TrEMBL record:
It comes from Paraherbaspirillum soli. The keyword Iron does not apply. The gene is gshA. It is an enzyme of class 6 (ligase). This is Glutamate--cysteine ligase. GO terms for molecular function: glutamate-cysteine ligase activity. InterPro entries: Gln_synth/guanido_kin_cat_dom, Glu_cys_ligase, Glut_cys_ligase.
Length: 527
């Protein structure tokens, strides 16, 4: 372990600083498809009993009208956020009728592309902008790819913690610049080591044959309805998932905020010929916001993003440029099909220790060669991470995934111990011990467990997924929301519908003018 990492751990472990570790924020965004009792995509509209997908703070939709997204408030303790996520699930199930929430990252029974409903947000200009953006995604990547679900983990450290580190290092830059620089250091380390998360938590080693719908692939056949790779951890995060030829040339550097902003700024303003051939209109209707590499910054797909809460009228990169990085969003986590909420507390505790390690350990700038090595290690882990003796590359030198993984856990352990000392318990160390067991016993990984069940039961992916979906539904329906919870969420729903109605009644001007202003960055909202 390097000297700087140990020094930072010791500094934050001092009595006057230890409380800072409990002042960061955590939040979860969980995506899940609505399906019918047979596991087929629900084609019904987003229920008004859940509120407005445009303005509700906790229940919205992602790409499709059928793809729900649950968002927890940011909390100091991830256990609190998970309790809130559980409450959202129980409320939604109280309003779903016979529909179910799909238990997997990968969908199974999807209708023809033209039948997959794009999310609708009403007739306000911002609602229409969100809808048109998703029309653009359909043109660029296909609707099926947009029906893949995941867990997003939002993470920040307390501002006071960054101030302690800055003072100790004698750094004379502004607090905003120091914090942004350190979040980018976290991101660089995350990209070096995130293959470990794929091995430990990847849970999509198989998918339904119908999902690929004639696409070329090199998957093995498990049965007539199921394709898989024998050592895969996360086909969702492989080249079978969300991919873009236009984005292949987009390689934002994570060495500093300025270069990251510059790269994304170019991508949202640089035309891409195949998109230009499509145009922005068809039969007089908008079909994409623009014909550039990216319609908006959030179209850039990455396993982790630097984030900043935006103000009305800002684009994400404008907020980052003005006020720096506020938190990071981890985007590579699969839905855990064995957990009703798609993630559990033990996994979350490990993520906290892993991310604290990434933040405090030395993080040299990334060269083009190392960036390629990081990408290749990640790709190898998602497609063959459980292969016995699999070797990754560390600074050009081969090392087995297992050996490197165990080394990393040893390095993360002091960060986990520091978090436990702050709490006066051992929950982070316990999670670390469970991850060590997965490295020593590959059959304990979620991906191995999924394949073992499919093979032992001679069960298709879709059948297994539907069985888990129904079990999770029974779990939530057995614990309906209390009268207080019901009143709280119904109040949020009512308020959100009123807010959407107010937007639609009070807006001025036409939609074309609104889009023009948005593209000129003079009138922008998050979409």
């Amino acid at each position: 372990m390097n000297h700087h990492y140990l020094r930072r751990l010791a500094l934050l472990g001092e009595p006057q600083h230890r409380a800072l570790l409990g002042q960061g924020l955590r939040g979860i965004e969980r995506e899940t498809l609505r399906v019918d009792a047979d596991g087929k995509l629900a084609l019904t509209p987003h229920s008004r009993t859940l509120g407005s997908a445009l303005t509700h703070p906790q229940i919205t939709t992602d790409y499709s009208e059928s793809l729900l997204e649950f968002i927890t408030p940011a909390e100091h303790d991830i256990a609190t956020a998970l309790t809130e996520l559980d409450a959202v699930h129980r409320f939604v199930y109280s309003k779903l009728g016979d529909e179910l929430l799909w238990s997997q990252s990968m969908p199974a029974y999807l209708p023809a592309e033209e039948q997959i409903p794009i999310a609708w947000y009403g007739t306000s200009h911002i609602g229409m902008l969100k809808h048109v953006y998703r029309r653009g995604l359909a043109l660029r990547y296909g609707k099926r790819m947009q029906c893949i679900a995941g867990i997003h983990y939002n993470y920040s450290l307390a501002g006071g913690l960054w101030q302690v580190l800055q003072q100790d290092e004698g750094d004379s830059t502004t607090a905003v610049n120091f914090q942004s620089e350190k979040y980018f250091a976290l991101i660089r380390n995350f990209r070096r080591y995130s293959w470990l998360l794929m091995y430990l938590f990847g849970a999509s080693p198989a998918l339904s044959t119908c999902f690929l719908n004639g696409r070329e692939h090199r998957l093995d056949t498990l049965d007539q309805d199921t394709l898989y790779l024998p050592y895969a951890t996360s086909l969702r995060m492989s080249d079978l998932g969300y991919q873009s030829k236009a984005q292949e040339r987009l390689t934002p550097h994570f060495n500093c905020l300025d270069s990251y902003i510059k790269s994304l700024s170019c991508a949202v303003s640089q035309p891409y010929p195949p998109y230009a051939e499509i145009g922005t209109h068809r039969n007089g209707e908008w079909i994409q916001i623009n014909t550039n590499i990216l319609q908006i910054e959030n179209e850039y797909y990455s396993t982790i993003r630097p984030k900043r809460v935006i103000n009305t009228g800002e684009r994400p990169i404008q907020a980052l440029s003005a006020r720096g990085v506020q938190y990071i969003e981890v985007r590579c986590m699969d839905i855990d099909p064995f957990e009703p909420m798609g993630i559990n507390l033990e996994t979350s505790r490990f993520l906290d220790a892993f991310l604290l390690f990434c933040a405090l350990d030395d993080s040299p700038l990334t060269s083009d060669e190392e960036s390629l090595e990081n990408t290749e290690n990640f790709a190898r882990a998602v497609k063959e991470g459980r292969r016995p003796g699999l070797q990754l590359q560390r600074n050009g030198v081969p090392i087995t995934l297992q050996d490197w993984g165990l080394e990393l856990l040893d390095r993360i352990a002091p960060a986990a111990a520091l978090l436990d000392d702050q709490r006066s318990d051992a929950v982070h160390a316990a999670s670390l011990a469970q991850q060590r067991r997965k490295l020593e016993q590959v059959e304990l990984t979620p991906s191995a467990r999924v394949l073992a069940i499919l093979q032992q039961n001679q069960e298709s992916f879709a059948s297994f997924a539907l069985r888990q979906t129904k079990a999770h539904a029974a779990h939530f329906r057995a614990q309906p929301p209390s009268a207080e919870e019901l009143a709280y969420f119904e109040g949020l729903a009512t308020t959100s519908l009123a807010e959407q109605d107010s937007l639609e009644r009070s807006q001025t001007g036409d939609f074309d003018t609104f889009v023009a202003a948005y593209r000129a960055s003079t009138l922008c909202m998050s979409v």
